Amino acid sequence: xxxxxxxxxxxNVGGHNKVKMxxxxxxxxxxxxxxxxxxxxxxxxxxxxxxxxxKIAEALKLAAKDKFxxxxxxxxxxxQEIRDALNECPFVPSPDISATFVHMAFLEAAxxxxxMDALVKAHTGPEPMKLVGSTLYINYVNGxxxxxxxxxxxxxHLGYAATARNWNTVSKLVQLxxxxx
Length: 181
Description:
This protein is α+β, with helices and mostly antiparallel strands. It is built from six helices and eight strands.
């Protein structure tokens, strides 16, 4: 049995794609997963179970479509993979780097070097970024809301669905997942 973390993209933003966390928790439990716990209203779910992360993501997407009437992007990683992503982050918060501006964009799969080069060439902003496997690390030096480096731009150039969380959220997800089997 493993601990997984599911990250939903594009819910409860601007009054669109509203999802109550109790309902989200229920659909994950209905899929047979145990010790299901949500964190904040942006679609973060920690749970225990067995299976392939990509297949779990697809099953949760279908369940979300049936329940909520839309299909959100859902990225599933093991708790260890999320912990490793946090530990590998090249932009560690410090007096010069705000934890709220450091984001980790979790991708469905690892993009090619050519795709990453295309994103770097298309990007005109001040944000440093680094790709490690299927995680794109970004330091939104002026805040993510002001940046042109959006999820849509990232997905367009890298070719995979992505959902991002800031340092504080990822740290909390790691903390909540600790001590589980």
